[in-house]
Amino acid sequence: MDAIGIIPARYDSHRFPGKVLAEIAGKPMVIYVWEQVKRALLLDDVIIACDNKDVFAIVQDFGAKAIMTAKEHLSGTDRIAEVIAPIDVKVIVNIQADEPLIKPLMIDSLVETLLRDESVYMATLMRKIKDPKDISDPNVVKVVIDKNNFALYFSRAPIPYFASEVSIEDICYKHIGLYAYTKDFLFTYKNIPQSGLESIEKLEQLRVLEDGLKIKLIETEFDTIGVDTSEDLERVRQILADGNARDTAG
């Protein structure tokens, strides 16, 4: 197979326990995400990686392919590695179960990049920042890139520093946490020890840069909202309701 999408569905979220089963548009959030991911044209398969028997049973009832994984995993990356270890596949896409606004084109752009360019082994997304408030918001992760669109640094702090006047849309990018890797690199990635900058910023991708490896950034016009709190959930519900209302009116 060329590409597989894996959705790690961790039940015991510290900030919002059970959020993967929170209702969105009449179905559990993880199923809403799964349905969006299934619309991607370049994925040969989509699997939900579960750590809870109730979640496993519920997603199967909706017709999703699911695999139970060990509870001991410390990260979604480890959970994905368990699932894909026996599978012959070139590219794996790590899709967060709490990103219901994800678009299929976002996934396809990453898969296309890795299949087209064998020198790229890890890729993720960025979007131009348009709201100046996002620059100083630590919940909005920023990224700066080199001339070939490889990451120089990710940070919760405002980067780059504005020593002269410039439009934020020309230089400031929000990182969107959707990742694709080659299968070989995924096992390299999961075995890289936690780095100093990662522990400071609480950004796992920094261990890749500190190890001297590269991450390709693909620009997208789409944005997402990760559901970390009940307030985030209500915000997503409202965005989807407003979008459906516009579609109906049109």
Care to describe what's here?
- There is one protein chain.
- By secondary structure, the protein is of the alpha/beta class.
- It has a single domain, classed as Spore Coat Polysaccharide Biosynthesis Protein SpsA, Chain A (Alpha-Beta Complex), CATH 3.90.550.
- It contains ten helices and eleven strands.
- Strands 1, 4, 5, 6, 7, 8, 9, 10 and 11 form a nine-stranded mixed β-sheet that branches.
- Helix 3 (76-84) packs across helix 7 (183-190).
- The protein is globular, with a radius of gyration of 18 Å.
- The model is unreliable at 245-250 (pLDDT under 50).
Which descriptors apply to this entry?
nine-stranded mixed β-sheet; Spore Coat Polysaccharide Biosynthesis Protein SpsA, Chain A; 35% helix; 250 residues; two-stranded antiparallel ribbon; 11 strands
The profile of the biggest β sheet is:
9 strands, mixed
Shape: globular
Q: What's the count of strands? A: 11
Q: Low-confidence parts lasting 5 or more residues at pLDDT below 50? A: 245-250
Helix/strand-derived class?
alpha/beta
Per CATH, what is the topology? Answer: Spore Coat Polysaccharide Biosynthesis Protein SpsA, Chain A
Radius of gyration: 18 Å
Mean pLDDT over all positions: 91
CATH architecture: Alpha-Beta Complex
